[in-house]
Amino acid sequence: PQITYVDHDGHQTRVDIPLGENVMRGALYNGIEGIVGECGGGLSCATCHCYVDEDWVDTVGGPSSDTEAELLEAVATELRPASRLSCQIEITSALDGLIIHLPETQF
Ligand code: FES
What we know:
Family: Belongs to the adrenodoxin/putidaredoxin family.
CATH class: Alpha Beta
Bound molecules: FE2/S2 (inorganic) cluster
Keywords: 2Fe-2S, Iron, Iron-sulfur, Metal-binding
GO molecular function, one term: 2 iron, 2 sulfur cluster binding
Shape: globular
CATH architecture: Roll
Number of helices: 3
Helix content: 10-25%
Strand content: 15-25%
Oligomer: single chain
Number of strands: 5
Cofactor: [2Fe-2S] cluster
Structural class: alpha+beta
InterPro entries: 2Fe-2S_ferredoxin-like_sf, 2Fe-2S_ferredoxin-type, Adrenodoxin-like, Beta-grasp_dom_sf
Largest sheet: 5 strands, mixed
């Protein structure tokens, strides 16, 4: 599925990410800055914060667990309704075309 990452300056990068991967690893594998993913997807760092594009919020849904919801409280930039931890967004065929906005910083 194709995922588009939009950085804080509005620069867009579209990449193809294999099914079963997640939005955090998709960014790292493709050299996209703006996602750090310090804990490697272990749901303990909150440096993979992203904003799901408003057109995709309903499809992607909210935090996948209480732990994600709690960790979101610790993100470095503004917490918004569309905030997610990108390591918790699994790539499925339903997400083909997904647009992800990257925060200015993860620290
Ligand atoms: Fe650490 Fe997502 S990579 S919480």
